[in-house]
Design a protein that fits this description.
Strand order of the largest sheet: 2-4-1-3-5-6-7
Oligomer: single chain
Number of helices: 13
Shape: globular
Distance between the termini: 53 Å
Largest sheet: 7 strands, mixed
Number of strands: 7
Strand content: 5-15%
Helix content: 40-55%
Radius of gyration: 23 Å
Mean pLDDT: 77
């Protein structure tokens, strides 16, 4: 069983990496996810029998009806493509993963429809695997963020090696969310923080201009703050920064009933603190799962993702609307010159959008 099969069939932990640049895009690095308690070979789930309540059975039938309805709209060639990608994904074929990502990222309307059929099939499969795991999440998604120079790439290499040496599987999803002007942490990192179970902030043992890009909101969302490069001449500065953040974190509003954000030091160069960091992460996962907060958080994230997608698509539809697209640059210019109030410009565009179907 290779790593990608584990990703889709029994995806244990997803590991998100955020690196600084100009735009926000995703790039999947082949691999799988961190197993939390058991390796794949020690999990025997297919033989488990489940008695589903009527409500669960009804929801399952609705999901299947949705898939069937979507599938009926595909031609034979499109259906063969979906079947090939779906089969390849659950069997761990990397070529199918690459092709599926290309399909999902396509902006062509028909390909987007085909991608939704594929995603729905994979989602249905994933739900079945969660049922076999007594409803518990099969993935632990961790988001990493930090300013340039924090050592994110070095940390991932060291951290991933430690996990693979222990027999775990690692998958990295690289995201590029930084501000193009300041070079610091951008707004898109807030979006990433709302897609993961645990958000980890990596900070270098320095201050001043190097940390200007870190926004307070990012720190408030951090479940774990980690001071990197705590070795050699940087040990003393790392201890000082750690102490400062320990004090600062005490003043922040508590977001969880069972977890208070921790601040720790690590060195990817010497390996010091890497194992302890994983222990803190698993402690967080245990507490959040036992308390039910992890399940609640994931459900809220699903709702947020839905509305985010609606907002993005509605805005694209609005900008490209025949009655609006030619007026946008003219009204923007009037707003910039101070001739027209932003509110009035918005009202004019919205009226044009609503009056012409």
């Amino acid at each position: 069983m290779n790593t990608l099969s584990l990703l889709l069939r029994f995806p244990h932990y997803r590991f998100l990496r955020e690196i600084s640049s100009k735009s926000f895009h995703s790039n999947f690095t082949p691999g799988s996810l961190f197993p939390y308690t058991q390796s794949f070979n020690s999990v025997c789930l297919y033989c488990t029998k489940w008695m589903l309540p009527a409500s669960d059975l009804k929801r399952g039938m609705c999901y299947q009806a949705t898939i069937d309805q979507q599938t009926q709209g595909l031609c034979d060639k499109e259906q063969r493509l979906v079947d090939k990608l779906y089969s390849g994904l659950i069997q761990g074929h990397r070529a199918c993963l690459a092709e599926a990502i290309t399909l999902v990222e396509s902006t062509q309307s028909r390909k987007k429809e085909i991608a939704q059929v594929l995603i729905q099939k994979v989602l249905s499969y994933h739900r079945e695997q969660e049922k076999l795991n007594k409803g518990k999440p099969l993935a632990f998604r961790v988001g990493l963020s930090g300013p340039p120079g924090a050592g994110k790439s070095t940390f991932i290499e060291c951290f991933g090696k430690m996990l693979t040496d222990r027999g775990h599987k690692v998958s990295v999803l690289a995201v590029d969310p930084s501000s193009s002007t300041s070079g610091g942490v951008g707004q898109s990192e807030f979006a990433v923080a709302h897609m993961v179970d645990m958000f980890v902030l990596l900070l270098p043992p320095a201050g001043g201009d190097e940390l200007q890009g870190i926004k307070r909101g990012i720190i408030e969302m951090a479940d774990l703050v980690t001071i990197t490069k705590a070795d050699g001449d940087l040990v003393v500065p790392a201890r000082r920064i750690q102490a400062e953040y320990v004090s600062a974190m005490k003043l922040l509003r508590k977001r969880s009933k069972v977890w208070r954000p921790k601040v720790m030091r690590i060195s990817a160069k010497t390996g010091e603190g890497i194992s302890d960091m994983w222990d803190k992460m698993t402690e967080f996962h245990d507490l959040m799962l036992t308390s039910g907060e992890l399940t609640t958080k994931r459900r809220k994230q699903q709702k947020v993702w839905m509305w985010n997608l609606i907002q993005e698509n509605m805005l694209d539809h609005f900008r490209s609307h025949l009655a609006v697209r030619d007026k946008i640059p003219l009204l923007e210019e009037k707003v910039l010159s101070g001739v027209l109030a932003p509110g009035l410009a918005a009202d004019l565009l919205l009226k044009a959008f609503k009056d012409r179907p």
